[in-house]
Specification:
Layout lengths: L1 E2 L8 E2 L12 E11 L1 H8 L14 E9 L11 E5 L9 E5 L3 E3 L6 H5 L2 H14 L7 E4 L5 H12 L3 E6 L2 H9 L4 E4 L5 H8 L5 E6 L6 H6 L1 E9 L21 E3 L3 H4 L3 H16 L9 E4 L3 H9 L7 E4 L1
């Protein structure tokens, strides 16, 4: 699915290309499932101008190695693998990719589940350990707690001993958030988020707020922080955040960070450690994500539409 220009979902069009043989250090991958992320929507719309056009969007997928190029010794034909790739190109049924991007999939880990969750799973692990070390006794706020990363954050943080407060937009999502680890759920359309957080924390606020919504929630998240609290803005599904006046941080000696997964997984050893922790959390039942929502590859435009309209929850995958 190739885009020649930025715009609405209709700019994603199917084209037939010749994949060819893998070059040195590459493998040819037959993809079995492809993840869809809000990052892809930002790229398609032109908000992120990080894909050279014409180009193939998509950051993550799972599949089976079909052939290996010269110098590749870590993988062989038939190996099951998954990846996240800063070079895009995942919206395809076959592709060439650098072998160094691949993570071997354990036999007991489902490829469809992981294909739509590699970015989310690695993101959750990085946010809870590297960006801010959540531990026993931490009090956290997760905006969009029923979303793809939100569900993982809530479950994993609860396992680590944190008190988890989540925000959602409906009763259905509230039930989903509770099932996935939230101690307290705030219906943001009916309740004032800042006031409710203060009530739940006896006026103190939270140690860390995880915010992937951006424009609509950023400053409420900031107001929910306890003194010396941390605001982690890792997405902007509602749009980019208005510029922050630095003196506002002085109100509680707050810190704000805008982490990007690629900076935390650039070292393959760090990436593999995060992936291993994610796979183990799935294996141990710490994370029990909902089944991914599936679309045919050619229906990726509908998938984008449904995600933007909040008609999906959890992982979204394309099936080649």
């Amino acid at each position: 699915m190739i885009m020649h220009e930025a715009g609405g979902p209709q700019v994603l069009r199917p084209e037939t290309v010749t994949v060819g043989e893998p070059g040195p250090g590459q493998v040819r991958l037959k993809q079995t499932a492809i993840g869809v992320n809000f990052h892809d929507i930002y790229v398609r719309s032109g908000l992120y101008q990080t894909l050279t056009l014409p180009g193939i969007p998509g950051l993550e997928a799972a599949g089976v190695v079909e052939a290996v190029g010269e110098g590749v010794t870590a993988f062989a034909a038939g190996d099951r693998v998954a990846y996240t790739s800063g070079n895009y190109g995942a919206y395809a049924d076959q592709r060439l990719i650098d072998a160094g991007r691949l993570v071997r999939l354990p036999d007991d880990i489902d490829d469809v589940l992981v294909a739509g969750m590699m970015v989310r799973g690695l993101t959750a692990r990085i946010l809870l350990t590297d960006v801010f070390p959540v531990r026993e006794g931490s009090v956290i706020l997760v905006q969009a707690a029923a979303g793809g990363v939100g569900q993982l954050l809530c479950q994993w943080a609860r396992h680590l001993g944190a008190t988890v407060i989540g925000t959602v937009g409906s009763q259905d999502k509230a039930e989903r958030a509770r099932r996935h680890g939230c101690h307290h759920v705030i219906l943001y359309r009916e309740q004032n988020v800042v006031d409710t957080v203060k009530q739940l924390t006896d006026g103190r606020g939270v140690d860390v707020a995880y915010d992937s919504v951006g424009k609509d929630t950023f400053y409420d998240s900031l107001a929910c922080l306890a003194p010396r609290g941390h605001l982690v803005n890792f997405g902007q599904s509602s749009g980019p955040v208005e510029p922050l006046a630095m003196p506002r941080l002085a109100a509680g000696s707050f810190t704000v960070v805008r982490p990007m997964l690629g900076h935390y997984t650039a070292d393959p050893a760090d990436r593999d450690a995060a992936a291993d922790a994610f796979f183990q959390a799935l294996r141990d039942g710490i994370l029990t994500p909902d089944d991914p929502v599936r679309y045919a590859l050619q229906d990726v435009g509908q998938a984008h539409d449904d995600m933007e309209a909040r008609r999906t929850h959890g992982a979204v995958v394309l099936m080649p």
